[in-house]
Amino acid sequence: MKTRNNATFLKSLLSLTALSASVLVNAMSEVPETLNTEVVLTNSTLDTLTVTLQGDARAEAVAHEIPPLATRTVAKLGRDHDTHRGLDIRLSAPTYSFTLTQQTQGIDLSFAAQSSDWQVAEQSDEEIHRFSVNLAAANAQLAVKGTDLDEGGSLQYIIQPQQPKPALGDAGDFSVLSYNIWATTVFGSQKVSTRLEQMPEVMAGYDVLVLTEAFDLAPRNTLLNTLRSEYPYQSGEIFRGGKILQSGTRIVSRWPFEIEDADIFDECNAIQCAATRGVIYAKIHKQGKPYHVFATHTQSSDDDANRNARKAQLQQMGDYIRSLNIPADEPVIMAGDFNVNKIGLPQDRDFMEAVLDAQEPQNEGHNLSFDSNTNHWAEAPYLEYLDYTLFGRNNQQPESASQTIIAPRSTVDELWGVWDLSDHYAAVGEFRFDASAVVRAPFPYFGDVVHLRTHNGHYLRAMSGGGSFISAGSDNIGTWESFVLEQAGNGKVLLRARDGHYVELDSYLVGTLTATNHDKGAAAQFELVDRGNGQIALKADNGRFLRADFAGGAGASAGAAAADDWETFTLVRP
Q: Which of 98, 401, 492, 521 has the most Cβ atoms closer than 10 angstroms to its Cβ?
């Protein structure tokens, strides 16, 4: 009996266990009766979007408007086993509107969008979907992604307008993009390579770029090389012995440099002394009109010690600009991350304008260039206006001028939900100057910036832009390949490199050439021979012609007895 009772007990226990397991499996496979999904929108426009909910779905309104560049949860959508239901979220600006549509069939969810001008296809998965749309005839992108929808999760939309580019126009139109690109990993920058890979599209279409915090060597160089096809003229770096970092500041231009120079600041404070602070200068020729561009990145932070260092830097920058004695009828443009927060310290902005003899243009676009409320990377709680494009008050005045803060963003997979390409927004300066007096010199273009192309398509180059030897080995035009022909009298000419040095004979015997002197003596004078079809030959003071060895792609020297193909250069004027 004891054995039978034990067997009966064991059989009952096994049956109970099987029943419990069945109940557990059924409970685990049962779909929840209700799922709640957050609908989120990032508004990358500069308009405030008003939110209106319509439809028969069970939904709760969360935000009634979305400020410029902000992200908001606009609704919480309930999904249950009821029949087909819909939720329309209408987003309205003064000149356009569009609607996000969510449809539920039971707990299944699909989503789409449309306006009076466009409609995007219905989606129901968790992939990123991107659509080209328009907002009041302006091109834009609408992107959407679902996350954890089987558990309720969220729908993330972003509406991102295509930033309009300024018209390049004639010689009197001049546009500058000033952008702190936050490429300084040693001080905490994140996703540097990913962010910089997206920047060329944002940076396209201007006359000049002023870049700051371009410290990280590999991603910075990749960016500059990518930009080179549109902006072949790029300034060098500055560095002072004893520092750890260079300045991280660059001027990048689609128009040639006639002159490049720099001044390193004497004052700095605390850890920021690790970087070489200063101002980089380029005299740029756009279609024969000179522009004097100054780029800087001054001391940050607003405590007394840092403010005093910054003010000293600004004073030095102003003194440096004045020391150049720039003609009053030529424009002066100053751009960069000045770290002068005119929101919290308007008196410091006034000081900056006073010591630089500068004026800030009329402001447009966003009201902050460092905005921790809308920029993922910007350090809270700072809400500041730090980035500027100024014009000189003692020089040619613009007929019109504006300064617009824009928000460069991307919807690429690696930046989804982050969006911003830097912790700063960018400042765009657009200037219009009278260019009616611009008269470009006829061939051989005396006083204008030119490139000397060799017989086989290479270019004459002053290594380092001057201060070194001359070669004919360059594949592309740029600052090192930029020269100005000057008349020296008696049918002779001078060839001035970008840094102001003149090309001259280093050895009369072998004809080697350097650009290491400001002397305009006989060694720097050449007889110009017009060879027709925009081509010249240059005969040096040793009686021999300047030659591109192997027709180009190698060295250069004044060692040829006669002018033939290797001694013939085509003058290229940008």
A: 98
Domain containing residue 426: 173-432
The predicted model scores a pTM of 0.91
Q: From the CB of residue 365, how many other CB atoms can be counted at a distance below 10 Å?
A: 19
- Report yes or no on 26 lying in a domain: yes
DSSP 318-357: HHHHHHT---TTS-EEEEEE----TTT-HHHHHHHHHHHT
pLDDT, tens digit, for every residue of 152-166? Answer: 999 999 999 999 999
Quick one: 245 and 121 in the same domain?
Answer: no
Alpha carbon 27 to its chain centroid, in Å, reads 55
CB-count burial class (<10 Å; 0-12, 13-18, 19+) for 515: buried
Q: Is the pLDDT of residue 138 over 50?
A: yes
Q: Is residue 441 part of a domain?
A: no
- What DSSP state is assigned to residue 407? -
| Whether residue 133 is found in the same domain as residue 5 | no
Q: CA 329, CA 435: separation in Å to the nearest integer?
A: 10
Same-domain pairing of 334 and 404: yes
Tens of pLDDT along 456-467? 999 999 999 999
CB 249 within 8 A of CB 296: yes
Look up residue 441 and give its DSSP letter: P
Tens of pLDDT, residue by residue over 424-458, are 999 999 999 999 999 999 999 999 999 999 999 99
Tally of domains within the chain: 4
* Integer Cα distance of 24 and 172 in angstroms: 78
Residues 194 and 114 in one domain: no
Residue 503 in any domain: the answer is: yes
What is the layout of strands, in order, in the sheet containing 35-43? 58-61, 71-79, 35-43, 154-161, 138-147, 129-135
Which pair of tokens denotes residue 24? 């557990």
- Determine the Cα–Cα distance for residues 372 and 146; give it in Å rounded to an integer: 26
Is there a single domain that holds both residue 388 and residue 458?
A: no
Residue 510 lies in a domain: yes
Residue with tokens 């002023």, as numbered in its chain: 210
137 shares a domain with 6:
no
- The residues, ordered by sequence, that sit 6+ positions from 293 with a Cβ below 8 Å of its Cβ are 176, 208, 210, 251, 253, 281, 282, 283, 284, 333, 334, 335
- What are 515's strand-pairing partners? none
Contacts 24+ apart (CB under 8 A), 555-558: 555/471, 555/472, 555/473, 556/460, 556/470, 556/471, 556/472, 556/513, 557/510, 557/511, 557/512, 557/513, 558/505, 558/511, 558/513
**How far is residue 443's CA from residue 24's CA, in Å, rounded to a whole number?**
90
Are 240 and 142 part of one and the same domain?
A: no
**Rounded Cα distance, 471 and 460, in Å:** 6
Rounded CA-CA distance 225/274 in Å is: 26
User: In the listed set 161, 183, 208, which residue is the last one of a domain according to the structure?
Assistant: 161
